[in-house]
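Notebook entry, structure prediction.
Reason for the run: the old model in the group folder had no record of what sequence produced it. Starting over properly, with the input documented here first.
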Amino acid sequence: MHLPIGFVPYCSGLTLPFLEQGQGITRRRQKFAREWDTHLKRSCAVQAEWLGKHPDSTVLILGAGRLVDCDLPFLLGNNTEVFLVDADPGCEALYQRLKRAHQRQLNFEISDITGLLATWTATLKKRMGWEETLETLRSLAGSGVSQLQLLTQGELALSLNILSQIPIIWRDYVERLLMNRFGKKFVLENDAAWLEAFAPCGRYLIEKHLADLENASYQSLLVITDVEYATYSGEMATGESPITWTRTQGGADSKLIVGEWKEGPELRDAEVSPSLFGVDLEDRAVLKRLFPNYEATLEDSWLWHIEPLGGERKGHGVVHRVSAISLDLSPSV
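New structure, fully documented this time:
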């Protein structure tokens, strides 16, 4: 199998956050199976529709994880080669078993897909005071030489629910480093300051992931990601989401996807927030700026009740809105 993209091993210092995130997804999938089923079925259906337009291709799956939200048997049945990539070391045993069963059709890499986190970690680990640490954190966006080397033109690439997770992993690592250096109490008391300093990194990691996809000139891309989330509180202990989102028609030619959130009367303090650090993938102008050589060919959106009310925190729940956007390389490129 040729490698459609080249990677470097993930930074060993980040092993624990990657592992914890993978374990958390597995635990939540088992605990909230009913609430997650709608999202997982929609995700697999969109992938099937996209792949159906490009049969017998090599498909790269970035953020394959523990294969919770992709239909691997379908992928293997409709594509000549499948390449799985994730940074969670807990995936390796699973991928090894699959590799033995599908020797010539499947390959994998356990790797940091940003190519930057090892460099950033080394920079931030230097002994500094609080203000200097925050200034260094702010300056990381756009700095460092990426170790991600794009090797060849692939055919298809799927960014699978990882876009918003890349900065979360880095944020969790930064928080742990700050607490080890300055103490938990101090960091919690100054969370607004360090999160403000972190924000440019978060946005940069998101835009860099999208730029890497654009620059690799794949024939077609599919990006599945949560784009916003609603946190809510209440008293009802129900598996059904008391928050809905309905897609609407017209009224916003600048937007690829338009919809309306609605809250049930039993809620209190519901709040909707963006997931991608200000990067609006559903804005046509932003999408064209990020992917100048591509045309959007498929889009969909749905809710993912990731944490039902009271499921993990008493009186608290979280709903994500997920968007799927596929882009095909323009014929003129």
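Summary: The first helix runs from residue 15 to 31.
The old model has been moved to the deprecated folder.
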